[in-house]
Amino acid sequence: MNPLSSSNNAPIGIFDSGVGGMSVLRHVRAQLPHEHLLYFADSGFAPYGDKPEPAVAERVLTIAAFLVAQGCKALVVACNTATIAGIRLLRERYRDMPIVGVEPGLKPAAAVTRNGKVGVLATERTLKGGKFLQLRDQICRSSKAQFLLQPCPGLADQIEFGALESDTTTAMLERYVLPLLEQGVDTLVLGCTHYPLVQASIERIIARATDREVVLIDTGEAVARQLARLIEADGLLRPVGTDRIPARLDGFTSASATALTATFAGLLGIAPPVHEVKFEANRVAS
Question: Is 79 among the residues known to form the active site?
Fold first, then answer.
């Protein structure tokens, strides 16, 4: 592990296949406002969903190594596909570092559903994954909740392109959400970190289609809480009031710095410095 990662003042590294992890980043910033953060958008290698799992796992290790080299004290894998492919390998490699991944929020959904019908919006890769199906079966047995799975091909790509309010994105959302509402779901899991970025559009579709209350589950908040618990337990919280240097956020991307800068402004209303990082064969280019 990089020796700087043991410092309370060291940053937390957060990464995703693209901009979807910003839905997690905003919760981390709200939960841990005094922490320095690094956000890596691997848009140059996106989407992860159409890559073989070993290739995604290798990419996860490469990005994590880059963030650890920047002195990160903790890592957040803000991508379902990357979590499934690589988090076990990360935890084996960085045994003393807090590492948090994401998974579709089946457990919190089962806890809040009133009629036992839960819709799950996710990528095809996630819904076919053995880890996801095992989790679904486990929660079904313990809660009796029924999970209605809806793959959403193309939706993450639309969000990645910044087409949050386009007619194409709206049509996709209607095609994926309306059948679940017709089947009576009262809870809807946003099972990809990209999807909370179009939550407002989903809420409008629900409001037009039904007068039932439908609860949306965004796992980013739970990820931020878990991260806070882990770094506090390890004594890694950045001291409050003892350091006059304000919390800093830096962005990194394997694609265009200009594009990521625009996304930070459009989605979060902020303008952090953004740096381009090029990889060759999953190694940082010299």
Answer: yes
Residue 144 corresponds to which tokens in the numbers above? 């009796």
152 classed as catalytic: no
**Tokens in use for 100?**
């948090």
Burial of 116 (0-12, 13-18, 19+ CB in 10 A): middle
Q: Is the pLDDT of residue 284 over 80?
A: no
Cα atoms in the Cβ-side hemisphere of radius 13 Å centred on 146: 10
First to last CA, the chain: 21
Catalytic residue among 72, 79, 140, 152: 79
Residue with tokens 């499934």, as numbered in its chain: 84
Catalytic residue among 72, 140, 152, 192: 192
Task: Tell me the per-residue pLDDT of 205-227, one tens digit each, with 9 for 90 and over.
Answer: 999 999 999 999 999 999 999 99
In sequence order, what are the residues at sequence separation of 6 or more whose Cβ sits closer than 8 angstroms to the Cβ of residue 246?
A: none
Best CA proximity match to 152, nearest among 187, 178, 189, 121: 121
Domain segments of the chain: what residues? Answer: 3-102+221-284, 106-218
Domain 3-102+221-284 has CATH 3.40.50.2000: no
Contacting residues for 283 by C-beta, under 8 A, at least 6 apart = 62
DSSP code for 153 = T
Length of the chain equals 286
> What is the residue-averaged pLDDT of the chain?
91
SS3 50: coil
pLDDT for 95 equals 94
Q: Rounded CA gap, 14 and 40, in Å?
A: 6
In CATH terms, the fold of domain 106-218 is Rossmann fold (3.40.50)
- What is the DSSP-derived secondary structure letter of residue 267? I
Residues 147-178: tens digit of each pLDDT:
999 999 999 999 988 899 999 999 999 999 99
